[in-house]
């Protein structure tokens, strides 16, 4: 390679490196943070094995929403439902978004009796988000914890109300 080719290669690498390492310098930091938040809002981690995004948008409010537990129960389940009510509704004064179907209940069904968590624990779940009643079905209380975490992530609070944009199965 000639010296001129090496110079242009080094210049190209330096330019690419600078543009990739500090993307927020092209916009103010506050705008960059808003961009990142908008990108991850409503996304789920860890990703479920499978899901179907319905494209429908729902609203919900703490005054009209409840968890309805059927099947096997335990202290772990009761405490989780209480804890996730606070996570889903961080600001209970937010009103429902007008003109959208409202989710009023998440029906939680646990099929097996409580067993301490182990490497063999079944943490699978099926979560269907729809109005007026969404459902979470699982074999164990450990699956309920995973499903409630997914539910709390797909439901996010906006200034005009709480909304969910996805259906996970």
Uncertain parts: none
Question: What is the 3D form?
Answer: globular
- Radius of gyration from CA coordinates: 22 Å
Beta-strand content estimate: 15-25%
Q: In angstroms, what separates the terminal alpha carbons? A: 56 Å
Main structural class: alpha/beta
- Total strands: 7
Provide a count of the helices: 4
Which percent bin holds the helix content? 25-40%
Average pLDDT reading: 78
Instruction: Tell me the strand order in the biggest sheet.
Output: 2-3-5-4
Helix and strand element order: HHEEHEEEHEE
Biggest sheet descriptor: 4 strands, mixed
GO molecular function: beta-N-acetylhexosaminidase activity
Protein name: Beta-hexosaminidase eukaryotic type N-terminal domain-containing protein
Keywords: Hydrolase, Signal
Pfam families: Glycohydro_20b2 (PF14845)
What does this protein structure show overall?
The chain is α/β, with parallel strands linked by helices. 35% of the residues lie in helices and 20% in strands. It has helices at residues 3-21, 29-40, 75-88, 141-154, and strands at 58-60, 66-71, 105-110, 125-128, 133-138, 155-158, 161-164. The strands form two sheets. The protein has a four-stranded mixed sheet with strand order 2-3-5-4, covered by helices on one side. It has a three-stranded antiparallel sheet with strand order 1-7-6. The radius of gyration is 22 Å and the shape is globular. The mean pLDDT is 78. Residues 1-18 form the signal peptide. This is Beta-hexosaminidase eukaryotic type N-terminal domain-containing protein. One of its GO terms (biological process) is carbohydrate metabolic process. Residues 44-153 form the Beta-hexosaminidase eukaryotic type N-terminal domain. GO terms for molecular function: beta-N-acetylhexosaminidase activity.
